[in-house]
Automatic annotation (TrEMBL):
Its main location: membrane. The chain crosses the membrane at residues 20-42, 192-213, 220-246, 270-295, 330-351, 371-394. It comes from the Bacteria. Belongs to the binding-protein-dependent transport system permease family. CysTW subfamily. This is Polyamine ABC transporter substrate-binding protein.
Length: 406
């Protein structure tokens, strides 16, 4: 006959059941986040280093290129023979474009080199080295063979290095990319500058609004809150198009300023950085107001009254008493706004000029236009890594700035 459970065992069983029940309630949300958030991010990071395109259509040369150890000189005859066999077979299988496209990512003009060689390549040759070089002298360039080696897969660092304006030399060392190809560091810097500018402007405009909403009577605060939430009920594309109408040379803003006599000629407010910052600030402003409002609403007015009764001027009382209590809301609002601003695509694409496009534009370009998934994934990975680094720095600063209890 089994022994009756002790009180401690029954408590453990009840606690275990409670935890299992709580986990069952949040399990659908965890599964949703796993499928829609974590899995796509993991797949993006995989694509940034996974490079099977060339090895699938040129398996012989991708296997033989490993025997090329002296990268300062040309590979041996066996590598040239493997390349010739792969070109002949892929030309018949109509997969030559895949190899040409992948090599063209790394070596400019590789597409014409591959197709030109395929058209002139004989079925037999006594020396494939001499034959290929006679067809096109670029096969005598170690840089071209280094591009083949880097594309042989299945793993590669090419896309990640290119995303930070670096590349590998034929000998395997790192070097800066050519000046005409070194654009991504500048684009990443531009992305963070725009995101910081939008976040700062949102804080400057949103703090007074949140303060007003938190301190007004409810009968006045609720209608104003509806105005803050109103942009959520309007399409992002419609809001961006509205700013194009407002900010153009003959738009309402320029017409109003010229009517007042403040300007003689229209200001350039569209298709530049000014238009991007204004439009993005309008879109993201509610994301800063709402967290800040929720924190300000919980600050009791008795603290300010106590400071005033002890002789503190209004400005000193606000800065020393009220403002420190709003820091959690400022931190949450600015972080949310900044992260959202980093990934914006439609607003800069419609309102900004060619020199105002952010990193999301290039990610979309490589995804939809050139179908270069590796480069798109690498840019996304670099943006994610930079965001996580900034977030860790932010967390440390906020953590060190907190007042610890005595």
């Amino acid at each position: 006959m089994s022994q009756p459970l002790t009180l401690k065992a029954r408590l453990h069983r009840a606690e275990r059941r409670r935890k299992l029940g709580a986990f069952a309630l949040v399990a659908p949300l965890l599964l949703f986040l796993l499928v829609t958030f974590l899995v796509p991010i993991a797949d993006m990071m995989r694509r940034a280093v996974h490079d099977p395109e060339l090895s699938q259509v040129w398996p012989r040369v991708c296997g033989a290129i490993d025997t090329w150890t002296d990268r300062a000189h040309l590979p041996g005859e066996s590598v040239f023979a493997a390349l010739a066999a792969d070109i002949q077979e892929s030309h018949k299988a109509r997969t030559l474009a895949t190899a040409a496209r992948r090599l063209n990512y790394d070596a400019a003009g590789a597409r014409s080199l591959v197709f030109g060689t395929a058209r002139a390549l004989p079925s037999r040759a006594s020396s494939w080295t001499e034959t290929l070089i006679a067809i096109d002298e670029r096969w005598a360039n170690p840089e071209v063979w280094a591009a083949v080696a880097r594309a042989s897969g299945p793993l590669t660092s090419f896309f990640l290095l290119q995303a930070v304006d670096l590349e590998r030399s034929p000998t395997g060392g790192l070097r800066a990319a050519p000046p005409d190809e070194s654009i991504y560091v500048d684009v990443l810097t531009r992305t963070f500058v725009v995101a910081f500018s939008v976040t700062g402007l949102c804080l400057l405009l949103g703090f007074p609004v949140a303060y007003l909403l938190a301190n007004l009577p409810d009968r006045l605060a609720y209608p104003l809150m509806i105005l803050v939430l109103l942009p959520f009920w309007t399409s992002l594309l419609v809001r961006t198009a509205a700013w194009v109408v407002l900010l153009q040379d003959k738009g309402l803003v320029n017409e109003f300023l010229m009517t007042l006599g403040l300007i003689d000629d229209p200001l350039r407010l569209i298709f530049n950085r000014v238009g991007v910052v204004i439009a993005m600030t309008h879109v993201l402003l509610p994301f800063l107001i709402l967290p800040l409002y929720s924190v300000m609403k919980g600050i009791k007015p008795v603290y300010m009254r106590a400071a005033r009764s002890l002789g503190a001027p209004p400005t000193v009382a606000f800065v020393r008493i009220y403002l420190p209590q709003t820091l959690p809301g400022i931190g949450a609002g600015t972080l949310l706004t900044f992260i959202l601003a980093l990934g914006y695509y439609i607003t800069p694409a419609l309102v900004g000029g060619a020199s105002d496009q952010m990193l999301s534009y290039f990610i979309a370009f490589y995804t939809s236009d050139t179908v270069n998934w590796g480069m798109a994934a690498a840019l996304g990975t670099v943006l994610l890594a930079a965001t996580l680094i900034l977030y860790s720095v932010y967390s440390r600063l906020v953590g060190h700035g907190q007042v610890k209890p005595a």
